[in-house]
């Protein structure tokens, strides 16, 4: 390499670096170019379709098990018993958000649209147990006992006016 | 190497670069055998991020596997999503509505831009210039906002569906995409002024790890790594799928403008220029997108016919292929995933011979590898 080329390289390096630094300086000094959001104080506006934590409205849930079957991670567990009016009663509905990958497939298949993504994205827990969201507040065994009692009462009621009929013993049928 | 006096015996040293090394872009371990600063042998050791995706695919049905394709290449989840959907549709001979195909192309190209921005940013950061990384992230954030608006997630999109896409573009999405394109296109020139033609940056990349066109083809390189060597092969042009034939765009190839053809700088420039072409495709797609449904009629219990199919799509990191074997059940019998980064690792040992240790970083950066793709 000749001396001329060597000097040329130095000049070019200085010139091109200065060109780049000018852009950096412009962004550094222009207050309009500020892009950082001071997170805990300021927040993004979340779009409607945002897929945050799952939330199931247990009052409209029909315990159809579609979400459980669709979930690729098996993070939803559902337990339901057949109630006195032949409808399914949720005994427990747990979502393990430690496993959930927020793909939204369960929300798409939900027939009554009771399962939805909320806008929540902040959560901290000190153990894995807290990562399981329980949507039925009552204990599963309590719900089952209560429903079994109601079913038995209904069966007894149905039996007393028509004693001759062989009433089918309607027992609390469990579904996964 | 010049001969050394025998009084000073030297020996080669074996050192590990990675798995925990900031410039290996994840958990890639490179076993370096060095003679002083010079690398005599660099063997990539892959497998630290094995996800078992192919086995997972056998366990799940076709639509359940969709969110896992996001994890295959987490910087280009949309491309992988769409490729999986196209592969399954080819297997089951389903045709997605045209609007869905347009939306898929729009998200694929947006994701190509965001992926190349990260590639540009992390590559320059590896080369010692930290500022461009922030600019790359800043623009990528806008793409992520668009995706969040469209599908609700910023990284793991799970947007495509077998037979369409999960949701139509919400009101304002196409306008915002147009706004982004107007904002983004001048930024590419800014990047070039900022770093691309910086003499120090060019000197570090020019003539480093030169791959000739024959070599690139022989080693099965695809994507920008192949085009960097001057081979104009782009699946969007050469094996057109979806609605790509309707768009007018150029295939960017390396030109050896600052050194030999096929060096690190050429591979870098191909990515920069490809962003411009993606903008071109996006402008046409946003203008031409027809009205209509976004989902074809697909039975809820989806069982494709017995058969096998191979579909490949042009991802930011090269050819992303899915080889699917169906036995007629709801789950794939076998799903083989072909990923660009994994194949690129083949040529790594060959091109790094005789380079300096600092150049290894440049080579890894110029290949733009992503680890989940390598280990799958």
CATH fold topology of chain B: Cytochrome-c3 Hydrogenase, chain B
Specify the helix fraction band of chain B. Answer: 40-55%
Termini of chain A, distance in Å?
79 Å
How many separate helices of chain A?
4
Class inferred from helices and paired strands of chain B: alpha+beta
Based on the coordinates given, report the CATH architecture of the domain at 54-157 in chain A: 2-Layer Sandwich
CATH topology of the domain at 54-157 in chain A: Alpha-Beta Plaits
Main pleated sheet of chain B:
3 strands, antiparallel
Which value, in Å, is the CA radius of gyration of chain A? Answer: 31 Å
H and E string of chain B: EEEHHHHHEEHHHHHHEEEHHH
| Percent helix range of chain A | 25-40%
CATH class of chain B: Mainly Alpha
Label the structural class of chain A.
Answer: alpha+beta
Shape of chain A: rod-shaped
Q: What name goes with the CATH superfamily of chain B?
A: Cytochrome-c3 Hydrogenase, chain B
The greatest interface between two protein chains, and residues involved on each side, is: A-B, 27 and 31 residues
Low-confidence stretches of chain A: 170-176
CATH class of the domain at 54-157 in chain A: Alpha Beta
Which assembly state applies to the chains in this document? heterodimer
Give the tally of β-strands of chain A: 6
Strand content of chain A: 15-25%
């Amino acid at each position: 390499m000749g001396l001329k080329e060597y000097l040329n390289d130095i000049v070019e390096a200085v010139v091109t670096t200065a060109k780049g630094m000018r852009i950096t300086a412009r962004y550094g000094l222009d207050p309009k170019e500020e892009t950082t959001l001071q997170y805990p104080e300021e927040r993004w506006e979340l779009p409607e379709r945002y897929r945050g934590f799952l939330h199931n409205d247990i009052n409209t849930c029909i315990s159809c098990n579609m979400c459980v079957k669709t979930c690729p991670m098996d993070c939803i567990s559902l337990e339901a018993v057949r109630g006195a009016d032949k409808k399914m009663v949720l005994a427990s509905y747990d979502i393990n958000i430690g496993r959930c990958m927020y793909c939204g497939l369960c929300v798409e298949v939900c027939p009554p649209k009771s399962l939805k993504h909320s806008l929540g994205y902040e959560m901290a827990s000190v153990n894995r147990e807290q990562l399981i969201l329980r949507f039925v507040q009552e204990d599963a065994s309590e719900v089952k006992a209560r429903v079994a009692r109601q079913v038995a009462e209904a069966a007894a009621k149905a039996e007393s006016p028509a004693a001759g009929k062989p009433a089918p013993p309607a027992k609390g049928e469990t579904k996964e | 190497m010049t001969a050394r006096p025998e009084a000073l015996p030297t020996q080669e040293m074996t050192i590990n670069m990675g798995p925990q090394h900031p410039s290996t872009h994840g958990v890639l371990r490179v076993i370096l055998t060095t003679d002083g600063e010079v690398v005599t042998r660099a063997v990539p050791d892959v497998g630290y991020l094995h996800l078992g995706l192919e086995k997972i695919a056998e366990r799940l049905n076709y639509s359940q596997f969709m969110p896992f394709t996001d994890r295959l290449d987490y910087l280009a989840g949309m491309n992988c999503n769409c490729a999986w959907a196209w592969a399954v549709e080819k297997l089951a001979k389903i045709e997605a509505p045209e609007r869905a195909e347009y939306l898929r192309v729009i998200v694929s190209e947006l994701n190509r831009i965001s992926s190349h921005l990260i590639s540009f940013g992390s590559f320059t950061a590896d080369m010692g210039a930290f500022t461009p990384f922030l600019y790359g992230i800043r623009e990528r954030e806008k793409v992520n906002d668009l995706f969040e608006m469209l599908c609700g997630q910023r990284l793991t999109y799970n947007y495509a569906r077998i037979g369409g896409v999960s949701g139509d573009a919400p009101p304002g999405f196409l306008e915002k995409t147009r706004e982004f394109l107007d904002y983004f296109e001048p930024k590419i020139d800014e990047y070039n002024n900022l770093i691309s033609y910086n003499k120090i940056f060019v000197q570090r990349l020019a003539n480093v790890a030169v791959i000739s066109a024959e070599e690139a083809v022989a080693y099965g390189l695809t994507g920008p790594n192949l085009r960097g060597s001057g081979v104009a092969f782009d699946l969007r042009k050469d094996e057109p799928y979806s609605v790509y034939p309707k768009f007018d765009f150029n295939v960017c190839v390396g030109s050896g403008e600052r050194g030999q053809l096929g060096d690190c700088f050429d591979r870098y420039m191909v990515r920069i220029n490809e962003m411009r072409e993606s903008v071109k495709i996006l402008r046409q797609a946003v203008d031409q997108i027809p009205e209509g449904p976004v989902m074809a009629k697909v039975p809820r219990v989806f069982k494709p016919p017995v058969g096998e199919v191979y579909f490949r799509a042009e991802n930011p990191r090269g050819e992303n292929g899915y080889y699917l074997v169906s036995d007629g059940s709801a789950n794939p019998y076998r799903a083989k995933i072909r990923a660009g980064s994994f194949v690129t690792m083949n040529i790594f040992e060959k091109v790094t011979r005789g380079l300096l240790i600092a150049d290894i970083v440049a080579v890894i950066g110029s290949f733009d590898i992503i680890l989940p793709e390598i280990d799958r």
